[in-house]
Amino acid sequence: MKRRAALQMLAALSAGAAIPPGALEMVLSGAAPDLVDQMDVDRWEQTVHEYRHVSLMRWTGALIPDLTADLVALGRLLERKNPPSIHARLLRVSAELSGRLAAELDDIGDRRAARVAWASARRAADASGDRDLSVWVRGVEASYARWAGCPDHLVIDLADEAIALSGGKPSRGLGGAYAARASLAARRGEEHVAFEALQNMAEVTDRAPEAFPEYFLRWNEAYAYTFLGDGRASSALEQALALYPPGTMTPVANLRLIQALDLVQQREINEGLEQALTVLQEGPISTTRYHLAERILGALPEQARKLPAARDLRALTVRA
């Protein structure tokens, strides 16, 4: 088995591909003690922190191979008879890595695989006893479900479940739940509901800025204001773009698409279309980007739909 795993590794490396999940662990099995100690768990928790940062700096889908490989390795550790405190910490790591994998899968359009990963994340979070983590899984799932073509009631149910489970304690999951509610209400033209959700989200940022940074708040404000045709959209967009860390990819690209929609709604048609085309040609077209591009096309006046840039945008966003 070890020889086969080593050959798989060498073949992958020579081809410039990712090492198959589990191959490295098989090669190294027996080379270290078969116990999971505090330092092992510390390293896994550090891995989670790294993913939180790296996820901003990569395009959608780029982390799926790494997350998959890490979850395979982590699963083997969870099968051992670990002390309860160690097991609970490993479950927390598993919940977050599974949630991040689910989010990536949702945004590349693989909803079936995403559902499986979300369910795994919920089970691990709930079994760990970490309520904030359980709130996070449901809040983030609601946040991604809004782009994945899920029925509105599913998004609302997930968001409401996260909010109820939080008990009002501010957290990144609670912020994500309010973000989902704000976006959905804005899409439906429900101004009062959207503004109330945005206010609740702002309170989360005020009370727990380290958990739900201001750039998350401004991103969702920009989305809601733009979809509602609110005059504060341009200002919120500028604020959000200025707040994201240098090198941020997907969230900033999506903000620029929202900005393109705002331009089109203000009848800056050519500028909006050109910006949308530029953004979509920079990276993979995720479900979020499809959603925004379709909204841009839908906002075009009848006479503008025959423009070459509009035809190019439509051709670029035809789903396979």
UniProtKB/TrEMBL annotation:
Residues spanning the signal sequence: 1-17
Organismal lineage: Bacteria, Bacillati, Actinomycetota, Actinomycetes, Streptosporangiales
Species this protein is from: Thermomonospora curvata (strain ATCC 19995 / DSM 43183 / JCM 3096 / KCTC 9072 / NBRC 15933 / NCIMB 10081 / Henssen B9)
Protein name: Uncharacterized protein
Keywords associated with the record: Signal
Protein's UniProt keywords contain Signal: yes
Superkingdom assignment: Bacteria
